[in-house]
Each structure stands twice: as structure tokens, then as C-alpha cells.
């Protein structure tokens, strides 16, 4: 029997009625002849609630206990879906991460999957076509026996990793939109659904803020060449559409220069004013930040107003902003900056497309279009298949829509 992994996100399992609807989708695939492993998220809003409780219990919580608490949302939905499938006359059982086991690192809160032992699930398939209902987002660090979680949105990664481990024919990620769009359809109504998108572009889109798939899931799909579809659980279970296929670049016939626009609010800007303009200064700033595990993204250096010193601007993840400022202040004597200015009301807007490799001037067009709308660019980065601009967050939607139209992505 061919094998299939189906993943259902939070809104798809938000109520018992929605879980029953998921069971109908699963039943269809079982009847079509697949052995099925289903990966489920927690009911929508549940993980946020659990995270809130941990933070309420202690500001400096133990990350192992955080994982114990937040992994529980998926335990509930896996059990409920197994019950709903049994109710329909199908054989099914739930699996928690530690039962399979899905073995991970011990980086609690953002653990990485090291290996998955698919033996038990495959035995269930071959014995009596038992459907495996797997709790997404969670695993176990075997040396300590502790429950781990894979970071927010991690059920996508559980699903793709499981598909690779049991050599599934494909992995279907069911969500509340019917595929990957040229940009977030919640903010641009003219966004278009893509039939196919390459692994490379999807990886950039996810990294640059498109939360439709967790970054790591795309990395795994690309590495193990798992054909992955993003599709809707809101389709009629009797007549579903395929959604968007994430696949090799070579399998896409018509390539646009720009495939998608993404935005991320998880950025903060730091500017060090009047830094001495001499060798070693960049190292004195960025080495301590690296040692504190702060990822620096965009960097620009300009001559200060006094023309003898320089201003250095860079971005860090918003979650690391306070920590980055305190590290820099601790090293103020080595760096010798006069002022530290920060901004958290910034957003990074990016355009992604493999076509940029062969077309010049793609980013330049955007700078002009944004300027025409009166949007000030605070920082820029470019690489082979994307460019990003940092702007005031108040202009997020205007900037995303402007670039979306500029590159011909609007729906007719
Ligand atoms: P789930 O709970 O099923 O994992 P998510 O909320 O994590 O669902 O992801 C789906 C959401 O991703 C959509 O509702 C949509 O608003 C958002 N999204 C952002 N960018 C895109 C994009 N380019 N294409 C489709 N959806 C996107
Ligand atoms: N429930 C987890 C979260 O909300 C994992 C997931 O849904 O993918 O982040
Ligand atoms: Mg998600």
C-alpha cells in the first residue's frame, strides 16, 4: 500500500465538529488505498493559552516544564481524532512523540528532530491498516527522557519528517487557506494562489515571514525530496482540491521573476551612533552579539553627521532586542559608540523569486516604487533570489500591496 501523511493545523481541529470533518478527509484517503499517518496540531488558540499560563506561573520558567505544558494541546486533539475515526468504523490509535519515538535534541522550546523510529506505525499499517494519529509539535530527548517541542508552527515539521521517515508518497498539509499564495491573502485580497512553488522559494518565503509553513518543514521537504502539498481542510471532503505543490524548480514551467512577497514583524532595529571609524570596530560589535546567540540580519554603515565617525545600523529578532541592547551597553567601552538608538515598530518586507538570478534591476524598481508612495527605507539586504527592505511598520500593508502590484502578481 502507498503511504500518505496528512497534517491538520489548529483551525482545522478547532472543535469536535471540525475534527469529525478531518476524519472524513482521512477516511477518503484510506478508501483510496493509502496507509495513513495523520499529524495534528492543538486546537487553535490552545498553544497560546498554554504558553500564557507558563509565563503567568513564572517569568523565568524552566524550559523543560514549558515543553511539558505546551505539548499537551496536541495530546488532546490526537486522542479526539482517533475517537472520531473509530466512530466511523476505522481502525485508529493516537501516538505521542515519546511513544513513536520522535527523537529530538534537548533544545527545549525549539528542538530539532534527530530521528524517527517508524516501526510501530508501520506495524500498525501492515497488521490491520491501523491509522496512526500523531501529535505534532512534540518529541522526546531520549537521554533525559524529557518531552520537547519543535518551536511554534512545529507540527508542519513533524509531518514532513514523518513522511520522510516512513517513505510516504507525499505529505499533505491541510490548513485554513487552499494553498500558498503570492503573499498573505489576509492582507492582500488580490493575492493569487500558486499551483506550484519551488522548495528554494518556499524556504525563503517561510524564512522571511510567510507563516503558512514552518521553515524547518520546508528544509526537510527539500532535503528528503518529499512532495508536499498545502491545501484546505475547508474543502468538501468528498471533492477536495490539491492546493499548492512544493517541488523542484525544474518541475515548474512558467517562472515569474518575482514569485511572492513576504513580511515579518519579528524584527527590531538598532543604530549605534558616532562609532569610531577604525579597523576592529565591526568585530567589537558583532562578536559579543554572536556569543550571546543574537542573530544579526541587515547591516548598514554610514558616515555620521560629524563626518569623522560612522553610524552602524542593523536588525535583530524582536524577541532578542532587549538582550542585544544590554550586551551592547556592557561593551560600550570597547565599541566606543556615543548613542544607542532602537526601534521595534519596524517591519521587513521581502520579494522572492528564482527569476532574480537572471534579471538585473529587480530590487531597484522596488526602491523607486516605495519612494513614490513616500515610504522611507531604513535598511536593505539582497541575495541571489530575494531582497528585503526594512520600513516603518505603519506602512506594512501599503508596501506589500505596492510590491505585489509592481511585479505583476495581482489577480485579474
Ligand atoms: P495552521 O494552523 O493550519 O498551521 P497557520 O495559521 O500556521 O495555519 O498558516 C496559515 C496562514 O498562513 C493563513 O491563514 C495565512 O494567513 C498565512 N499566510 C501567510 N503568508 C501566506 C502565503 N504566502 N500563502 C498562504 N498563506 C499565508
Ligand atoms: N500548536 C503549535 C503552535 O501553535 C504547533 C503547530 O500548530 O504547528 O505553534
Ligand atoms: Mg501553522
Automatic annotation (TrEMBL):
<dbReference type="Pfam" id="PF22468">
    <property type="entry name" value="ACT_9"/>
</dbReference>
<dbReference type="InterPro" id="IPR054352">
    <property type="entry name" value="ACT_Aspartokinase"/>
</dbReference>
<keyword id="KW-0457">Lysine biosynthesis</keyword>
<comment type="pathway">
    <text>Amino-acid biosynthesis; L-lysine biosynthesis via DAP pathway; (S)-tetrahydrodipicolinate from L-aspartate: step 1/4.</text>
</comment>
<keyword id="KW-0547">Nucleotide-binding</keyword>
<dbReference type="GO" id="GO:0009090">
    <property type="term" value="P:homoserine biosynthetic process"/>
</dbReference>
<comment type="pathway">
    <text>Amino-acid biosynthesis; L-threonine biosynthesis; L-threonine from L-aspartate: step 1/5.</text>
</comment>
<keyword id="KW-0418">Kinase</keyword>
<feature type="binding site">
    <location>
        <position position="181"/>
    </location>
    <ligand>
        <name>ATP</name>
    </ligand>
</feature>
<feature type="binding site">
    <location>
        <position position="186"/>
    </location>
    <ligand>
        <name>ATP</name>
    </ligand>
</feature>
<dbReference type="InterPro" id="IPR001048">
    <property type="entry name" value="Asp/Glu/Uridylate_kinase"/>
</dbReference>
<dbReference type="GO" id="GO:0004072">
    <property type="term" value="F:aspartate kinase activity"/>
</dbReference>
<feature type="binding site">
    <location>
        <position position="74"/>
    </location>
    <ligand>
        <name>substrate</name>
    </ligand>
</feature>
<dbReference type="GO" id="GO:0005524">
    <property type="term" value="F:ATP binding"/>
</dbReference>
<keyword id="KW-0808">Transferase</keyword>
<feature type="domain" description="ACT">
    <location>
        <begin position="270"/>
        <end position="354"/>
    </location>
</feature>
<feature type="binding site">
    <location>
        <begin position="211"/>
        <end position="212"/>
    </location>
    <ligand>
        <name>ATP</name>
    </ligand>
</feature>
<comment type="similarity">
    <text>Belongs to the aspartokinase family.</text>
</comment>
<dbReference type="GO" id="GO:0005829">
    <property type="term" value="C:cytosol"/>
</dbReference>
<dbReference type="InterPro" id="IPR005260">
    <property type="entry name" value="Asp_kin_monofn"/>
</dbReference>
<dbReference type="InterPro" id="IPR002912">
    <property type="entry name" value="ACT_dom"/>
</dbReference>
<dbReference type="GO" id="GO:0009089">
    <property type="term" value="P:lysine biosynthetic process via diaminopimelate"/>
</dbReference>
<dbReference type="InterPro" id="IPR041740">
    <property type="entry name" value="AKii-LysC-BS"/>
</dbReference>
<protein>
    <recommendedName>
        <fullName>Aspartokinase</fullName>
        <ecNumber>2.7.2.4</ecNumber>
    </recommendedName>
</protein>
<feature type="binding site">
    <location>
        <begin position="7"/>
        <end position="10"/>
    </location>
    <ligand>
        <name>ATP</name>
    </ligand>
</feature>
<dbReference type="InterPro" id="IPR045865">
    <property type="entry name" value="ACT-like_dom_sf"/>
</dbReference>
<dbReference type="GO" id="GO:0009088">
    <property type="term" value="P:threonine biosynthetic process"/>
</dbReference>
<feature type="binding site">
    <location>
        <begin position="175"/>
        <end position="176"/>
    </location>
    <ligand>
        <name>ATP</name>
    </ligand>
</feature>
<keyword id="KW-0067">ATP-binding</keyword>
<dbReference type="InterPro" id="IPR001341">
    <property type="entry name" value="Asp_kinase"/>
</dbReference>
<feature type="binding site">
    <location>
        <position position="47"/>
    </location>
    <ligand>
        <name>substrate</name>
    </ligand>
</feature>
<keyword id="KW-0028">Amino-acid biosynthesis</keyword>
<dbReference type="Pfam" id="PF00696">
    <property type="entry name" value="AA_kinase"/>
</dbReference>
<dbReference type="InterPro" id="IPR018042">
    <property type="entry name" value="Aspartate_kinase_CS"/>
</dbReference>
<dbReference type="InterPro" id="IPR036393">
    <property type="entry name" value="AceGlu_kinase-like_sf"/>
</dbReference>
Amino acid at each position: 500500500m502507498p503511504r500518505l501523511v496528512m497534517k491538520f493545523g489548529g483551525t482545522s481541529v478547532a472543535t469536535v465538529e471540525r475534527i469529525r470533518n478531518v476524519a472524513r478527509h482521512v477516511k477518503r484517503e484510506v478508501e483510496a488505498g493509502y496507509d495513513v499517518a495523520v499529524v495534528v496540531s492543538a486546537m487553535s488558540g490552545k498553544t497560546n493559552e498554554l504558553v500564557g499560563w507558563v509565563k503567568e506561573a513564572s517569568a523565568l520558567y524552566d524550559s523543560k516544564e514549558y515543553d511539558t505544558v505546551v505539548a499537551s494541546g496536541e495530546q488532546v486533539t490526537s486522542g479526539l481524532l482517533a475517537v472520531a475515526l473509530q466512530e466511523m468504523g476505522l481502525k485508529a490509535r493516537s501516538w505521542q512523540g515519546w511513544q513513536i519515538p520522535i527523537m529530538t535534541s534537548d533544545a527545549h522550546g525549539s528542538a530539532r528532530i534527530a530521528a524517527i523510529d517508524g516501526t510501530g506505525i508501520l506495524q500498525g499499517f501492515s497488521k490491520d491498516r491501523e491509522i496512526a494519529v500523531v501529535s505534532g509539535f512534540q518529541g522526546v530527548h531520549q537521554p533525559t527522557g524529557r518531552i520537547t517541542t519543535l518551536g511554534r508552527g512545529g507540527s508542519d515539521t513533524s509531518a514532513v519528517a514523518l513522511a520522510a521517515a516512513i517513505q510516504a508518497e507525499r505529505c499533505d498539509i491541510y490548513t485554513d487557506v487552499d494553498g500558498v499564495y503570492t503573499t498573505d491573502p489576509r492582507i492582500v485580497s488580490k493575492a493569487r494562489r500558486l499551483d506550484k512553488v519551488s522548495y528554494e522559494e518556499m524556504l525563503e518565503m517561510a524564512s522571511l515571514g510567510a507563516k503558512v509553513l514552518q521553515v524547518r518543514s520546508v528544509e526537510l521537504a527539500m532535503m528528503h525530496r518529499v512532495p508536499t502539498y498545502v491545501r484546505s481542510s475547508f474543502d468538501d471532503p468528498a471533492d477536495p482540491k490539491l492546493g499548492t505543490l512544493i517541488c523542484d524548480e525544474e518541475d515548474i514551467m512558467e517562472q515569474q521573476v518575482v514569485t511572492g512577497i513576504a513580511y515579518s514583524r519579528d524584527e527590531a532595529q538598532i543604530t549605534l551612533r558616532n562609532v569610531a571609524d577604525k579597523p576592529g570596530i565591526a568585530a567589537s560589535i558583532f562578536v559579543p552579539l554572536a556569543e550571546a546567540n543574537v542573530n544579526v540580519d541587515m547591516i548598514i554603515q554610514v558616515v555620521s553627521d560629524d563626518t569623522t565617525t560612522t553610524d552602524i545600523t542593523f536588525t535583530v529578532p524582536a524577541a532578542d532586542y532587549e538582550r542585544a541592547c544590554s550586551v551592547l551597553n556592557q561593551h560600550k567601552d570597547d565599541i566606543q559608540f556615543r548613542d544607542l538608538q532602537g526601534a521595534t515598530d519596524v517591519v521587513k518586507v521581502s520579494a522572492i523569486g528564482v527569476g532574480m538570478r537572471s534579471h538585473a534591476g529587480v530590487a531597484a524598481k522596488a526602491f523607486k516604487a516605495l519612494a513614490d508612495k513616500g515610504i522611507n527605507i531604513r535598511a536593505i539586504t539582497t541575495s541571489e533570489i530575494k531582497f528585503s527592505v526594512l520600513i516603518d511598520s505603519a506602512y506594512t500593508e501599503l508596501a506589500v500591496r505596492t510590491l505585489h502590484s509592481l511585479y505583476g502578481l495581482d489577480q485579474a
